[in-house]
User: Fold these one by one.
Assistant:
Number 1:
Amino acid sequence: MRPLTLALTVILLTGATLPAFAASTEADFKAAYAAAEAANNEAGKLRNQWTTTVSALTAAKKAAEAGDFDKAVAASKHAEELAKASIYQSQEQKDGWKQMEIR
Amino acid sequence: MRLVPGSVLGSTFGIVVAALLMGAAHSAPASDTPNPAADAKAFQKFFTDKFPKVKFEDFVNGPYSMDEGLYQQWKEKEEFPPYEFALDMGKELFAKPFKNGKTFADCFPNKGIGIRQNYPTFDEKQGKVVTLELAVNQCLESNGEKPYSYTKDEMAAVTAYMAFTSRGKPFDIKIPNDPRALAAYENGKRYFYTRRGQLNFSCASCHVQSPGEHIRAEVLAPALGILNAMPIYRSEWGGMGTTSRRFTSCNSQVRGVPLKPQDDEYRDLEYYLSYVSNGLPISGPGARP
């Protein structure tokens, strides 16, 4: 019985973690890309988009067009994180720029 | 290479936060009361104190004022300056009548000769800063002509000629008693010191904190007098470029998406940088590595 229990446990645990490793779908890409694009648009309103965000968005779209949704989702998430960092930078620099001023 | 979002978040965010915290430790914030005259005085003192051996008027020579070897190379370059073709082209374009028979001379004070030192100017009718590049395109459009690209070619040529006729004349930028002018100046100052792009650099990171230092093979120019030589022939560009080209390429170099040439921020930045260089002679067109 013990080997069977062990086997079942392994199968159940593997099963429980399967969704994290499952192949991404087009819907996953669309959701991730939309989130990244929204964050980048917000950075645009702050006049502080990063070229690397744009490159990551382009890479995401290219990967999706090639049918590689894992890569497309990863690139979209990368773009979203970069865009969020640029937003943070703008918010911090709203007054932070004064620290560098010659006076 | 496969991307790993979690680690990217950590590294990118971490770098930005660390850099911002380092910036915050630099010094205490300045007063919020605008005082352009005091700014200009402090700005010029900062550079003359930092580089006591550089003559005041030599700051317009950018990296050449920082490095003896480069200075010698520049002296030799000036015998056959690389901007000469643009200068000839600019002189020709400047004199060539538009379709309506008028020329650039009809759009500018003193027929456009020897006036570079007065730009940017704050135009109270338009309620905004007008740079020489913008004035050139406004002249073209008001005479039914197609505007030039702001970054190079004809624009660089015409402004090169106009700068050439103004050589030696000190920058004389005025801030009229108009709250909009002061707001534009302050906006330009804010833009100059604001960190941007993934590399988290401001204009000041290179041109205040590090003039004379190298970034790869380049020697960084001091911010004082940095626009006096515009437009410039840059070996890196393999051609001429305007102030617009310089601003947009600086933004790209720090991995920021550039704004459109002559957007408010860029015109205001030019206003600020030119004002704090008041008294320094126009030396354009220039040549840079």
Number 2:
Amino acid sequence: MGEVLILVDHVDGKLRKATAELLTIARRLGEPSAVHIGPGAETAQVTLAKYGAGKVYVFDDPAALGHLVAPQAEVLAAVVAKTNPVAVLIPSNSIGKEVAARLAIKTESGVITDAVDVQAGDGGPVATQSAFAGSYTVKSQVTKGAAIIAVKPNSAAISPAPAAGAIERVDVALSDLAKAAPITERKPKAKSGRPELTEASIVVSGGRGTGGDFSPVEGFADTLGAAVGASRAAVDAGWYPHSNQVGQTGKQVSPQLYVACGISGAIQHRAGMQTSKTIIAINKDEEAPIFELVDFGVIGDLFNVLPQATDEVKKRKG
Amino acid sequence: MNIVVCVKHVPDAQGDRTFTDSDMTVDREGVDGLLSELDEYAVEESLKLAEASGGTVTVVTVGPAAAADAVKKALQMGADKGVHVSDEAIHGSDAPATSLILAAAVKKVTDGAPELVVTGMASTDGTMGVVPAMLAERLGLPQVTFASELSVVDGKITAKRDSDASTETIEATAPALISVTDQINEPRYPSFKGIMAAKKKPVEQWTLADLGLDASQVGLANSWTKVVEVAKRPPRQQGEIITDEGDGGVKLAEFLAAHKFL
């Protein structure tokens, strides 16, 4: 079996959830190797090895993350040239998808993004995607070059499979063009203490029906250990940050449980949450299209239903 | 500053979007199409930048005959001229092939020297969001993508980009490729005057041959990926819906407990 590269998703060596998922998926396709770009490889190494990385290719020149996207694609292209991998798995977030895009052109390889599953198949890995706001499921294969597949978070149940995790430094001279768009400032987002939206197994979202008061939504989310999302209407009204927007132009989430509070369920929103495993909605309007999707719905005022549900959940959790 | 804005004609998301049975490509005939909503922000930003610097805006699209509507809409909004690349051989092209065609069209319309190339963040049909980065790679331009705020002063570009963990400031110097999000502006509606004026604006019709490209480089048969299966997801079975009679919250908690979420 050939090598399968995964791009490590991390902040200063602290791994994000997608990384172990990518390694778990990579083991289905071949021998996983991690590509760690940026600082903290020694910190990451233990976990990368635990989930099956035989090798950890490291490139820690600060210039790689100090410029937008292009340097990461150059580093990956160099590792691809060296290893001739059967697949390259990349986190399907906005940066990851753009790294995949440039890598595809550099290596003349096909690219698939937003995969929710990847399995070994005849003639290479088969990636599953949701299309048209979750109304279709599409399976695709790469037919040219290394199979570059950007995989969404929550696409695999992680399992450990210890491997060597041997660090191997990569020597790449970044081009001037790769350094043409420097990131001159990086402001960390305020920490909410809640799980990240795309990684969370439960998401509670608020929409127009909150009238701008997200406190019942946040209160309920916190009793469930959930992330908080918002509809485009709520974000456009300035009630909640854009980084929490669920929908076509925000985040696409696929949690175990999605609770939509005061959200009508326009196509724009459905595109971001329709593949959630279980869906609950609370809405005053019994005609709201969101009810077409739900496993459980409450026609009622979220300002009554949510506080009561919050109390009841707390009671049951003891 | 002269700007080229790349746009896509997409099936209306409000319609019943489907795939073509015969070749599993997006059905672009059975559903009404329109200028991708996310490209309206790119057109608006291009118009603002051109207005501020006294340049022109050229709108470029690749697609079948109906895609002319996307060019028309951009011209009605205020773009100065259009380019429509259309060729039967293009049908079924994947993102790398589409970016190849767009890059060739951008080069031709700017005599090989683009100043600013602007795009939306993604299309509303494919939603991959990879073509802008591919275009930057192919054109050899600095990539400033997913801008939610943008300023261009004397060719110096400053943009804000929201990532999961942080908000970043990115700087570059023109020529460059910029993609914008739906947070950046409020696209204008075409005025009556704009609609009338658009009728007189020039639109170039180009084929692959005009761009020096060959049918063997594009299209479904030469795609670097292939779709092996398309299945309509069964509609979600509507579950239990109750009306809150004072105990809606308790019942919700009961549902969560019964389904092992607590």
